Amino acid sequence: MNNTFNVSRFGWLLKKTILERPAQLMGLSLLTLSLSFVTYALVKLLGGIEDAQNASFMIGLIGGGCFLASFVYNQFSSNASGSSFLTLPASQFEKWLCGVFITGVCYLAMFLVFFRLMDLGFVSAYHSSLDPQSPFYKDQYEAVKIFNYYGFVADKCFVMFFNFAGTMLVGSLYFNKASFIKVALIVCAVCMGLFMLNIFIAGLFIRNVQTAFPYYLVWIWVGKERGRLELPESTLAVSSFMFHYLIPAILWGLAYLRLKEKEF
Fold this sequence. Notes:
By secondary structure, the chain is mainly α. The chain has helices spanning about 5-20, 20-45, 50-70, 80-85, 90-130, 135-145, 150-175, 180-205, 235-264; strands at about 210-215, 215-220, 225-230. It is globular, with a radius of gyration of 22 Å. The two termini are about 25 Å apart.
């Protein structure tokens, strides 16, 4: 039998992990899906379907993924459960892969299917409510479309999901108690620090800076109007590669290294 990975052994570990804490894992997932639905419905009433799609997708994917990642290794919240988890007859790789699979595959797939069905329902209801005899029917119909999983908003949400969920996964292995709150505070402090540092550096080289988004663009005042300066295409490609692939891979890999440390 392979000491690193065995399908049957991994399946047993995955089943045990989910069924041992259904209220925390499945319950938390269902709660997040419900919150996504409520967000969609409320924002739709206040700002329209497009705003509702963006807000609901962001909260459900990023928020739900981060919450789940912070709980997936909740065995270490106590010494007894942590020791029991470490002594399970499974490899370190399988224990790490179990958390990654639950967060990065199971939840992601479940949320995308749920959101698509929910979005289809809301968009279909909107289209059905339009008057086919109205002179603006075609424009109103085409103005509201199914949320695009390959669009700009979805792309940024996926990037944040894999980066922040990876951070939470690592944090849950470093902070045994209240890991979500602790890691969230650290992430907020780091993001705020980078944001302010980026504005300061941009101000050293560019006049009339209004604001600056790290590794993306700078907004400047041109008289009474605003203008934007973006990174060169080659530099932007490097930055995009880092946040899309390199940093998430490092974060999710660090979770494996930290789990190995706990074995000793």
